[in-house]
Design brief:
Blueprint lengths: L1 H4 L4 E3 L13 E5 H4 L2 H8 L4 H5 L2 E5 L4 H5 L2
Parallel strand pairs: 1-2, 2-3
């Protein structure tokens, strides 16, 4: 709510709902969501609106990132 009051478009990523991210500059997400292959593909695609619009991803529970990136 505070980001929106400052004029920063933001959203919370839930269940890998990529459509909600298309207008956001700031996204709050879990480690599981940002490591989702579908999200990663959109983020890397330079023709994707998500790739071109998104400026910052805030990862909740960042202490789990090491666990989810070890494969």
């Amino acid at each position: 709510m505070e980001a929106n009051s400052l004029g920063i478009s933001c959203c919370t990523m839930k269940n890998s709902n990529l459509e909600s991210l298309e207008i956001a500059k700031l996204v709050f997400a879990s480690a599981e969501e940002v490591t989702n292959p579908k999200f990663q593909k959109e983020l890397k695609n330079n023709k994707s609106q998500i790739h071109n619009q998104l400026e910052l991803i805030v990862v909740d529970e960042s202490h789990t990132v090491d666990t989810w990136t070890e494969r």
